[in-house]
TrEMBL record:
Residues 130-179 are annotated as: Disordered. GO terms for cellular component: cytoplasmic stress granule; eukaryotic 43S preinitiation complex; methionyl glutamyl tRNA synthetase complex. The keyword RNA-binding applies. It comes from Meyerozyma guilliermondii (strain ATCC 6260 / CBS 566 / DSM 6381 / JCM 1539 / NBRC 10279 / NRRL Y-324). GO terms for biological process: formation of translation preinitiation complex; tRNA aminoacylation for protein translation. Residues 203-305 form the TRNA-binding domain. Keywords: RNA-binding, tRNA-binding. The lineage of its organism: Eukaryota, Fungi, Dikarya, Ascomycota, Saccharomycotina. One of its GO terms (molecular function) is enzyme activator activity. Residues 130-178 have a biased composition (Basic and acidic residues). This is tRNA-binding domain-containing protein.
């Protein structure tokens, strides 16, 4: 792990403007992980979000591994006021990994006024953490043996009560036991097949890429780094509000009345009191960020997809399945500024509309797209 003494603590109020360059460069997987946790930090009022964050920190010193990143600062700022309310032992025990991480951050990376610091009592004895064990094939075999034993016991008891069973009774009982076991095996096989069918590997067809038209954008009233945009996306119930962290990268006037590419089926998140229902797709490299532009002549609501992945998107991406986190690291831009998805050992697939016309950014080559 990097020597934490080499980091100069950032003031709590300066976290949003803190440079990412003071931290080690993240790989694509770590960038996706950082983006996931920053999204989660916008909905800490949900128990599921706290559980995901706590489980993620169970085996990691920091959010993206054993080295700190800008994400640790951003998420810490959101977690601090929430964690300060955890007073009872059960709450502290449930989120022990978040508390451990937050205490490390406030003592190494962030300068927090004493009045705002998270108070951590290291002498409190917490109950042992219990991890739920997954049931495996050995457990199934044990269950089968238990059933067999029950049948034997039942037979012995009946024999004791009514004397020896006839051959026909013995045969009937054996067939009944065999049928019961077969029915149980069939039911289990059907359940496994159903689960396998619903657990297709993550792919871009599950993501709802759409053309959006920004009707109007304003600065978020409670977040210096965020814009609030009203975006028409072809929904029956009208435009959506989407928050984007683009203040440092795009001038407000360049956010007005323009077409963009939007991810439409991410789970809505509350960002500083504003519910954000989607994400504007951008290309970024070396600190520069620019929009991914839909093909000329596009209309709000037009479907976009990567070649060979023109399927029916999920109604809403389930954060637990990590579909976005699995596919996003494979997005990039070409020398001709086209947006592509590349699986290992396969040809890149372009992000296109129904006519096969590609989406493009403006100047960045080999950029991260998210």
């Amino acid at each position: 792990m990097t020597d934490l003494q080499s980091y100069k603590p950032v003031s709590l109020s300066d976290i949003d403007s803190a440079p990412e360059t003071q931290f080690p460069e993240l790989n694509d997987e770590q960038k996706a992980l950082a983006a996931q946790y920053e999204t989660i930090s916008g909905r800490l009022d949900e128990k599921e979000s706290l559980t995901l964050l706590n489980d993620g920190l169970r085996t990691s010193t920091f959010l993206t591994g054993n080295q700190p990143s800008k994400a640790d600062l951003v998420v810490f700022k959101a977690v601090l006021p929430v964690a300060a309310q955890w007073k009872d032992t059960d709450k502290i025990a449930a989120y022990r990994h978040i508390i451990r991480w937050a205490d490390l951050v406030q003592n190494t990376l962030v300068s927090v006024p004493d009045a705002n610091k998270l108070v951590v009592d290291h002498n409190v004895e917490l109950p042992r953490e219990v991890k739920e064990k997954k049931k495996d094939k050995k457990d199934d075999k044990k269950e089968d043996k238990k059933d067999d034993k029950k049948e034997e016991t039942k037979a012995k008891e009946e024999k004791k009560a009514g004397g020896e069973l006839t051959e026909e009774e013995k045969k009937a009982r054996a067939e009944a036991a065999k049928a019961k076991k077969a029915a149980k095996a069939k039911a289990k096989a059907e359940l496994n097949a159903k689960q396998a069918a619903t657990q297709a590997p993550p792919n871009p067809a599950m993501v709802d890429f759409r053309v959006g038209f920004i009707q109007k954008a304003v600065k978020h009233p409670d977040a210096d780094s965020l814009y609030m945009s009203t975006i028409e996306m072809g929904d029956e119930d009208g435009p959506r509000t989407i928050c984007s962290g683009l203040v440092k990268h795009v001038a407000l006037e360049d956010m007005q009345e323009r077409y963009v590419v939007v991810i439409a089926n991410l789970k809505p998140v509350t960002m500083r009191g504003v519910k954000s229902c989607g994400m504007v797709l951008c290309a970024s490299k070396d600190g520069k960020v620019e929009f991914v532009n839909p093909p000329p002549g596009s209309k709000a609501g037009d479907k976009l997809f990567f070649e060979d992945f023109n399927g029916t998107p999920e109604k809403q991406l389930n954060p637990k399945k990590k579909i976005w986190e699995a596919v996003q690291p494979k997005f990039t831009t070409t020398e001709s500024f086209e947006i592509t998805y590349t699986e290992e050992g396969k040809e890149p697939k372009k992000l296109v509309n129904e006519k096969g016309e590609p989406c493009k950014n403006s100047t960045l080559v080999a950029a991260n797209v998210s």
